[in-house]
Please model this.
Amino acid sequence: MPRVAVLIMLALAGCTLFDTGEEAAPGPEEMSGWRQASGKPPSRAEYAAMVAACQDGAVPRAAAASLDACLANLGLKRAP
Model:
């Protein structure tokens, strides 16, 4: 029985390996248009963490700058 449970867990883990994330619901409206340096859009969690870092002043250079400038300092770019 433990072998079957391990095989099921491995099969479920393998299914998420090929998930591209394109089928997921789009993020918040303000999140759309931003891209990481790799060209991929950030996940909701990544975007939320970067916005929180900007708002909390965790990024010293951008503490007084706008949110867009702070996100750009963290590596996000606006998509054309």
The beta strands are 34-35, 77-78.
